[in-house]
Amino acid sequence: MSRRAELILVNLICFGPFAARSILGLIEHKDALTFDDRGALILIGVEILCGGAAALLLRARGWTFSAFGLRPTMAQTVAGMLLLIGTYIFVGGFYDLVRTLTNTNAAEAVTSHASITLPVLIALTFINPLYDELFLVAYNLEAARDDGPFFAITVSAFVRFLCHLEQGPIAALTILPLGIIFAIVYWRWRALWPLVVAHGVMDFMGYVSELR
């Protein structure tokens, strides 16, 4: 199997189910999205199954976990918080600029409603960021390294965007630039932990107000 074929196969395993759900949601054009314990547990379960399958494939192909730069240290944790702040500033500014120039509010196209318990939120905060940043960013950029930064970063950001199409126009203004920022940061420093920290805090902050 060529490295390009491996890249495609791993993405199909890890994100094919989520991309299919996202595209279906976009076609159905739902005005409101709901997320609860059941949805979160299904998400976690699928990520564990798909991540396990992808890990077995990559191990058989000669990949090692150390190749992805996961080094949880205090310095990288602080870097993750700085990445979080920088991402919020950049993405928020970009969103406000587009809203001002177009006189539209993309967030109004699709509304979101969540109801989640604390244990499930904690599990989601740990598992989902590690899964996404490991396969979406670290693996994709390492696997596509020989094709150069533009191709590798584009693949990573596009797959992330593809998995969030059901959110409507807001995905293009938030998920896409976030994906580009995270991929650029990883390409420059080859450090995975700051991405996991930033993503985890985003998830927790996004749902903590919806606890029940």
Task: Give a nutshell description of this structure.
The protein has 212 residues and is mostly helical. The protein contains 8 helices and 2 strands, in the order αβααβααααα. The termini are far apart.
Structure description:
The protein has 212 residues and is mainly alpha-helical. The chain has one domain. The protein is 72% helix and 5% strand. The protein contains eight helices and two strands; from the N terminus they run H-E-H-H-E-H-H-H-H-H. A two-stranded parallel ribbon has the order 1-2. Helix 2 runs parallel beside helix 4, helix 3 crosses helix 8 and helix 4 crosses helix 7. It is globular, with a radius of gyration of 17 Å. The mean pLDDT is 95.
> How does the overall form come out from the CA principal axes?
globular
Structural class: mainly alpha
Q: Secondary-structure element sequence?
A: HEHHEHHHHH
In total, the number of strands is 2
Largest sheet: 2 strands, parallel
The domain count comes to 1
* N-end to C-end Cα span: 48 Å
Number of helices: 8
How much of the sequence lies in strands comes to under 5%
What is the percent of helical residues? over 70%
Radius of gyration: 17 Å
| Order of adjacent strands in the largest pleated sheet | 1-2
Mean of all residue-level pLDDT scores: 95
Uncertain stretches of 5 or more adjacent residues: none
Describe the protein's topology.
Blueprint: H1 3-28, E1 32-36, H2 37-60, H3 74-102, E2 111-115, H4 118-143, H5 149-162, H6 170-173, H7 175-189, H8 193-207
Parallel strand pairs: 1-2
